[in-house]
Amino acid sequence: MSTQVPETQETEESEAETETESVPVAQQRRQQRKADRRERVEERERERTEEEAASDENRYHLKVFRYDPEVEGKQEPRFDEFHVPYHKGMTVLDALMYARDHFDSSLTFRHSCRQAICGSDAMFVNGRQRLCCKTQLSDLEEPVRVEPLPHQEVVKDLVVDMEHFYDQMEAVEPFFQTNDLPDGELDEQRQTRENREKVKMSTRCIWCGACMSSCNIAAGDNEYLGPAAINKAYRFAMDEREGSDMKEHRLRILEQEHGVWRCQTQFSCTEVCPKDIPLTAHIQELKREAVKNNLKFW
Amino acid sequence: MSQSYNRGLVEDFGRWREFSAGMWAWIFHKFTGWVLVGYLFTHIAVLSTALTTPQAYTDTIQMLEMQPIVRILEVGLLAVAVFHILNGLRLLLVDLGVGLEAQDKSFYASLVLTGAIVVASIPTFVAGAF
Ligand code: SF4
Ligand code: FES
């Protein structure tokens, strides 16, 4: 810190010199701006170190699952402890990133958007599937236990193999398709407000896999489509623009042996979904749709 | 990615502490269901072997009802049956899509009601056995 003070003096001096030599005004201004900026950076630096010193007592205790089949010493899974300095508003993801950047650069986990949109950082935190970037440290009890999602194969540290989840998602044809086209070639395909409202929640899935991991039916039956995939199917099956042929087709996929009927209403998916999608309600509605579709007397 | 570590079943069952209402309801429903199935078969087996004469039937029933342990098991049977019925009603509502947001409350309600009914029935069940 002490070295920074003379530095600023120096720049001031050089500025004074340039002033006496009457350099163009624009250049003066530029130099002034630079000096300002330097000061601001220093200010921030000072604040940060102060903060860190202050938060020395205010550290969060993390226990993080470690495993790496490719490294000799890590083949046996274990928990590593990290003490991460806390700042207000810190999420579990922030803490993990701090641990990775400051303590152990080999700590591996997925993340991208940091705002609950990309769905890549669902993990098992303190005994529950949570989205790390959406979970405040202050809401959790210490030590905060971070593990990879259960019921999925661990590739390394907190990274699990999502391939099976994506396969299930793709199995329900998660895209809009219709043969119920409007007459005119340039006509728009309109959706009523009520219909949009109906599928609204189901469109919010971010493919994080938390629901699938929390469901122990999905854990026991690998072929079960799982809550996320069924919700995805709901989004399109309930969309009026797809027409009745498509709906039939979708229901046929859903009412297979490992489709909607596997759900035994444990509600664990609904409980963990970071997007608050009423998954169980959607699955139940599709069950009723499937029955109606087969009985056809109403 | 050649191999990956599978955490196995032991860990799954160690997670019961983190279960929420819906999961407990599911576990209890399964458990009580199996108990009832078991009871039904014993019930049929015991009574059908006692059907030789009217006297044999009476003897069997009396022999069973004399034992305190049977009386206590009967209370347990009632508890299991009542919970299974009430939670069955809850599941019926869930299947009809009624009150899905209150599913945890209806689970607690069926637990409390089961408890109340069982406690109220204890005097009748154990009368004369002890
Ligand atoms: S339904 Fe919810 S929990 Fe499941 S993948 Fe989508 S966002 Fe994640
Ligand atoms: S980092 Fe994108 S959802 Fe958490």
User: The CATH topology of chain B is what?
Assistant: 3 helical TM bundles of succinate and fumarate reductases
The chain-level structural class of chain A is: alpha+beta
- Gyration radius of chain A (Cα, Å) is 28 Å
Which ions, cofactors or small ligands are bound in this entry? Answer: iron/sulfur cluster, FE2/S2 (inorganic) cluster
Mean pLDDT metric of chain A: 86
Helix content of chain B: over 70%
CATH architecture of chain B: Up-down Bundle
CATH architecture of the largest domain in chain A: Orthogonal Bundle
Poorly predicted tracts of residues of chain B:
none
Q: What is the CATH domain class of chain B?
A: Mainly Alpha
**Model regions low in confidence, pLDDT < 50 over at least 5 residues of chain A:** 1-19
% residues in beta strands of chain A: 5-15%
Family (chain A): Belongs to the succinate dehydrogenase/fumarate reductase iron-sulfur protein family.
Cofactor (chain A): [2Fe-2S] cluster; [3Fe-4S] cluster; [4Fe-4S] cluster
Protein name (chain A): Succinate dehydrogenase
InterPro entries (chain A): 2Fe-2S_ferredoxin-like_sf, 4Fe4S_Fe-S-bd, Beta-grasp_dom_sf, Helical_ferredxn, SDH/FRD_Iron-Sulfur, Succ_DH/fum_Rdtase_Fe-S, Succ_DH/fum_Rdtase_N
